[in-house]
């Protein structure tokens, strides 16, 4: 049944990209047809798009944009959509296998099917689904093959940075050393190869200095409201490949976003130091929480970022033991409002009209609530251990349920009566 649902929903998405059907709102295809194809023509020469401010990706992303050459009998855009669809199918297969390994739990697979369908054709018109597949593969191999997991995470980091965060919850000791060591070796080795055989692989690091605040981010909300009220007179325009706010106080907001990301990293390190419980499920839960806090604090929350959260959240739901069920469902709700702001109502967002502001407030509010909830649940399930006191019966029994406590007391009294009878 999940496979049938996937086939039907993806067929509809592909039809909207190939032309017979039309998805409401802005067209999501120009990035592939114009920008990605332009990068492809430059990359095949062995040079990165140096000087192109829209190029903002680590060097291994080149492999993604060159991949449509594997299907030379198709146009570049059609080949790209089909490769993204293949990555989408790979994610589904991994989720189905993970769910069956945890007692035939298909909740994760269903979340992925539904979430991608809600986000719409954008999922197959951006390369984030391919990166998500790499990250999930790294998480699923971490228990038995930590070096392989580290290598996959390292490659993922060189494609779009964030997959390195999925190792945040690796088991301490040998697993952590092997996975992080492999990630480091892979990252350094592949980077050295790009430096040796290509031109300008790390130019993107110096091409983002003057970025503003992307209009869909959490930090953009005050500017939207003030602009609607007529109290702020900046502008929103295409800048560094996305619509950003430019004007008074925007640099300050960007610095606040950066400070938030630093604080998020500090919290993640503190959680890692304090955590006492590690397992495969904790690895998934920690990866979801880690990526979520960096998405929420980012000054760029593009709609495709939700693909990352959907994939990691779906992996959490493959186990009954996850503590992230509620935050993951909040992300699914955020997907609905994400598609309302892009592509359906993007014009309203760009102009800071009231409908666009309301949709953004709800979407970003859901992300913020999900972030706080995910971090709180991860902390209490792994790092928080309340001390037992003689007057605290609940703490004496640890995490035992109330009914179990009663049964234990009854058995104790029964044993005491038998001893007295003797």
TrEMBL record:
It is found in: Cell membrane. Residues 385-406 are annotated as: Disordered. Pfam families: GT87 (PF09594). Its main location: membrane. The keyword tRNA-binding does not apply. The chain crosses the membrane at residues 78-97, 109-142, 148-168, 180-197, 252-270, 282-299, 305-323, 330-350. It is a multi-pass membrane protein. It comes from the Bacteria. InterPro entries: GT87. Keywords: Cell membrane, Membrane, Transferase, Transmembrane, Transmembrane helix. Belongs to the glycosyltransferase 87 family. This is Membrane protein. The lineage of its organism: Bacteria, Bacillati, Actinomycetota, Actinomycetes, Kitasatosporales.
